[in-house]
Write a structure and sequence with these properties.
alpha/beta; Rossmann fold; 2 domains; 8-stranded mixed β-sheet; 18% strand; globular
């Protein structure tokens, strides 16, 4: 006889596989994230966020993570018009739950949906995307809107908030960390801003704003597939080299054979062994990095 937990697991797996075969969004990872809203620091946009909370014993006040999605948006490509906590992309759900398991509060910021583009954009559409979604001038304001909202919460340690971004959201994270100031913050530092950032396979052109390199106000760690077919690993390596030459605390790890979206749990990406290896290496590195910067009070720069 199959035990109840195993039976439930088999049922969930069966449902997941059936959803894939039917082209529907896979069942969400439980517990569902909480839908929240808060203003962007652009002063005009009310953003949607999805909040992941620790389920076991945790501190009354926790560190937090702001997550920035890529050009495909926050939701599954099979959402079919249902843009909600139940149809968030599997990658975002997995990372949100991972941070909650570490004892952090994590919020995924949907910066596209409130501006009329919940479905995101296909590959190689960069030149046709609206200026309202500019990853250098607009999306950092969304990150700082999420930061301000988290800092007001009674369950968050206000000076222990980190940033994570993927692809276009990774580019936005780089621009965010290169800012000297933000609305309501005259001088950014690990105390007043983010404690640091994880950046996965960003496009490093950054609208030509940082061709000479950037100097983040807090540490940044970049993870990139060396076989990325969507953005240029070489360009990111050069940006990091120029930034380090200027004294920036920024490092990049390249994964041979790994593609864009290497941590995507979908079958297409998991069928590439280099992607599996890259995810297996980057995930514990990411956990260790956030643990190192979120475990103690920040020291002003």
């Amino acid at each position: 006889m199959i035990g109840l937990p195993r039976c439930i697991g088999l049922m969930l797996l069966s449902g997941f596989l059936m959803a894939l075969l039917m082209g529907a969004a896979p069942p969400p990872i439980l517990p569902l994230s909480e839908r929240v809203t808060f203003p962007s620091a652009d002063g005009a946009t009310m953003l949607t966020g999805y909040l992941f909370k620790p389920q076991g014993p945790h501190a009354a006040r926790m560190p937090a993570v702001v997550m920035m999605h890529g050009r495909a948006g926050a939701y599954s490509s099979a959402a079919d018009g249902d843009y909600s906590a139940t149809t968030l992309s599997r990658r975002h759900q997995q990372w949100g739950h991972l941070w909650a398991q570490q004892g952090y509060l994590a919020v995924l910021v949907d910066g596209f949906g409130p501006r009329g583009y919940p479905q995101g954009f296909p590959r190689f559409s960069y030149d046709s995307r609206p200026e309202a979604l500019n990853e250098v001038t607009v999306r950092p304001l969304d990150a700082y809107g999420a930061l301000a909202w988290l800092r007001r919460r009674h369950d968050v340690v206000p000076d222990r908030i980190a940033l994570q971004g993927w692809s276009n959201g990774g580019s936005a994270a780089l621009a965010t960390m290169a800012s000297a100031s933000a609305p309501g913050i005259a001088s950014l530092s690990p105390v007043t801003g983010f404690r640091g950032a994880l950046v996965f396979y960003p496009a490093c052109g950054l609208k030509g704003q940082f061709d000479g390199g950037l100097v983040p106000y807090a540490p940044v760690r970049v993870f990139h597939g060396a076989a990325d077919e969507e953005v240029s690993p070489r360009r990111c390596g050069e940006l990091v080299d120029r930034s380090r030459a200027r004294g920036g605390d920024i490092e990049i790890t390249f994964y041979p054979g790994a593609t864009h979206d290497f941590d995507d749990p979908g079958t297409e990406r998991r069928d590439v062994p280099a992607n599996v290896a890259a995810t297996g290496d980057a995930t514990p590195r990411a956990i260790a990095f956030f643990a190192s910067i979120l475990s103690a009070p920040a020291v002003p720069k």
